[in-house]
Input
Amino acid sequence: GLRTRRSHSVGVIVPDITNEFFAKIVRTLDIFFIKYNYSVLICDSNEDPELEERHIQDMFDKNVDGLIYVSGMEAISSLVKNPRVPVVFIDRSPKNAEFVVQSDNYQGGYLAGKELCEKGCTRPLLIRDYRMASTIQQRRRGFLDALAEYGKTCEGNFEITILPDYKSAKEKVAEFLGEKGCCFDGVFTTNDMMALGTIHALAEAGYNVPGQVMIVGFDNVSLSEFCNPPMTTVAQDTEQMALVAGEALLKLIRKEPIEQKEYVVPIHLEVRSTT
Ligand code: RIB
Output
């Protein structure tokens, strides 16, 4: 038969494998591709652009048949410009991508803002990823639009920008509380790990959640349910995101047509005890 350089494997690259959001996507992709006899190479860039670049190069050297790129940042555009194999994007995405799967991030941000306002929040604080990826822009827009409907804003330094993890959120909120006291009564964080850090910083400073400050996270990782108090969050359907991306990559590898270039997965608000 024809000799091909392909390896019957696909690469998956994520920015933070310790975040359950990404771990769940990886698991579903692995189960999916194994069914089709593809092995899966998993790389974690630890949010480091150089490492990300290197992992991608490695996967090309190993002749992967396709790549699923989850929430990538830096290497994104060069990948789209020089596609050596088909690439499907999950979550954050560049323009001109062949195929993108993402949650309805605008609606997610909107529901978070509406929930806080309806439960009586008067001084909302937004804590978001400092990088303005498409997903974060949309969440922020949705959130601010909902606030505007209730006559509220985040103007006047009520928008904090940090790395999207537990530690950064905990430190930054502790610092904010130290400098300004508890001048806010509701927080939306653009992921759950940041919400968890916020809850812990508030608890350590002696503030009651949700009595003094309400919180809405984003993702619905299991920690959001197991933390104290269990957290209200915008749930992303990681399984559907991964399956849609897997199907699309298979089609691209087989050079089958894809009807649409973008797929938006619905989100829902999981109301628990922080609002
Ligand atoms: O928790 C990781 C976050 O980064 C998720 O919300 C995901 O959508 C990504 O943007």
